[in-house]
Amino acid sequence: MDTGSPFFGLLLCVAVCSVTFAKECGMSVYYRFDCYPEAGSNQGNCEARGCCWDDSKEYGDVGIPYCFYPTDYEMYQISGPVDTDFGCTANLTRSQPSYYPDTIKDLKLDIYYETKTRLHFKIYDATQKRYEVPIDTPKVTHKASETDYSVLFPSYGFGFGVTRKSTDLPIFNTSVNNGGFLFNDQFIQISTILASNYIYGLGEHRGSLLRSPNWSRFTFGIPTILLILMPLSTVPIRFTLDWSRPTATPTVCFSLTVMLWAIIQPAPAITFRTIGGILDFYIFLGPTPSDVIQQYLEVIGQPFLPPYWGLGFHLCRWGYKSANRTQEIVNRMRAARIPQDTQWNDIDYMQSHEDFTTDSKSFSNLPDVVADLHNHKQHYISMIDPAISSSQPAGSYAPYDDGVKADVFVKDANGKILVGKVWPGNTAFPDFFKPETSGWWNTQLKGFHSQVQFDGVWLDMNEPSNFVDGSFEGCPGNSTLDNPPYLPSLTHGTLYGKTLCPSSQQAISSHYNLHNMFGISEVMVTNKVISQLRGKRPFIISRSTFPSSGVYGGHWLGDNYSKWPDMHYSITGILNFNMFGIPLVGADICGFNDNTNEELCVRWHQLGAFYPFSRNHNSLTCGPKLCIDQDPGAWSSASQDIIRDALTTRYLLLPYLYTLFAEAHINGSTVARPLFFEFPHDPYTYAVDRQFLWGSSLLISPVLDPGAQTIKVTLPAGTWYDFYNGSAISISTTANVTLDAPMEKINLHMREGGILPLQQPNTTTYVSRQGGFELRAAICSKTGTAEGSLYWDDGDTIGTYENGEYIFLKFSLASNTFVSKVVHNKYKDAGDMVLSKVTLYGVAKDPKSVTVNGKAAHYSYVSEVGTLKVSGLYTPMNDTITVKWNA
Length: 887
Known about the structure:
Distance between the termini: 58 Å
């Protein structure tokens, strides 16, 4: 059961424009940088800060600041820079304090020329150590011998710019004299001009993929237990793409684990504000969007390779109410022959909502249900909350008693265990940064696993969420950690609203500094424990995320609603998180809150069959009544048929999906991606967020509106083949095309030039993996070529890629010849892999003959669509396979 969602963000901008600043207070309203971001500004207190005031109503744009910096506002002065082994360094000094308390007058700027395409800079206190993020990143001590960027400094004031050498175009520019660069103990602000109005990301959000630059405001780090509408964690990434030249550059800031705000204005420009830490940015030069993500993940870590079964279909709800009912749903799925690999239970399986327990009455036979799943080669996942019940008599609840003995819980400002409230009532919160916590967590999970043989873990409520503000005793009223000098408008009004007191203490720092890393600290420990406990790849889904979370687990998009717009917005979520390095992501199919309806749920299953992480999950109550069932087996036989077909198609495509996850694990590529990643020169793709790609070769175009029987899709220039029958659509320029979309169909198209590895599907991945493979090629209309690949291993062993225990095949097609070639093979069961079928889309003429490895083969040809099918094969794939046809 989920009641909120945590996130970190990414901002992406495209194209390049020049900027000219006016002087003093006469600049364009779009270049006004807010000098009084808190509430209550007026002319008097604005001018007391040395800023300009203009409260004219004529502009019409909501968000234009009345109080803004003049161009001659006092700023830090820079001395240097001085060359260093790693790049350069400079001193920043300010003679007078700013209007926020505890101005840090002496700063250090270090710029690291880390690689040819990666620049790193830090701004920090020159005299006193401040908090920095405890995540391992590359430590570079010597600058790159060659770079694609240049760093420029102004003759006066603070600032620097970064340009791309090949174009001399700016890609980062902090020299915004009226931007008010401030560095106080609990208020840090920096602004930069952006290169365009094409802006994406800044965290998970309910809306379009393309961000509005019109005074948009984003807050990161707000825990909420009811809505998915607020972003809940930090770390923006900024992309800049110059579309006249295929280049991309994001800036990543991830030292800001305390509250962070971003304000985008139509200059375009962005201002970052935070209330602690240092400024720590990376700039990546691409040149392509995919290159940028790969360079980003070289810093934070590449995603984990999930177990193969984890890519099957998952089913859950809050409200099964018993193990028997859980078994009934599983049986209903089997009877309907609908694919399912994993069954989940939400919080209702626990005894009084207490972690590591099962309800002694309604879920007493849960172990039997799990055993039945395992007997059918299916899997089981249970939810675990981080909040540990603390109100039982001593000796009656081992997780809390053991935690007290091991001293693993977060402490309040006075050194006592901080007590809040979550589902079981009074609760304590583990400090996963403390070394002792790992052993304690291992003991609890191991003990629970001895009762219920779970295969993966669902980590919920780990922002951390709290049903009271701070603690039952409140938070110290005189603490600037709990009540900092600056806060924007917050959902709960304070930093500690529905979470822990920022002044509470953890092993390595205050919760003020560590709040947004609570979730990832839990995921990291859980990943290690589950790996050791099961001896197989861990499968973890977490609500809270942070850069590097994808190294350890996946994410779901929180409490959505059973509404058509939420289905659309889920596409934005999966695309963003793939850019964030967390490709294992999906939304609750059919919606979590409110009752769904049959049409919506059928269409959502068609879309959800192509989420990287595919799970149906809904709530206990919808208003005063229980929510209806929404699992596939709950609907009419006609709807079951449609859902079965969609999920069967997913299982057919699992070898391709698994290969994409392997590529993400190996080189940091995305699994699901927006169209502009593949077509960066095509401005018609920049705003497309109702379609998406798996890899580079499969376009998914779901129906997202009620009653629709057709769908308007954007097809970039080229030839696109219908996935099901090979009928082609060829267009010379990008166009909107109307396609038939009856209830029984989700439109899938293969991009010309791609080859997809497929496998005969069944109702579980275990059985599917025993089927024969199919290779389906979409021949390029201009060159007559195509290519693809397959990564394959046992799907569950840890470190198969690192240990070389896999087979990797490359597929190529040219001159009427299709070749499957073994590039690497140390997979022990490679001999069991057989090719059953080859399907070729775009064959212009009926072949006179077809051979496979020199021998005549059975084939059929459909002239209406130019599809050639070579079937009836039983050809081992652990050696070269050659298919030839004569036109």
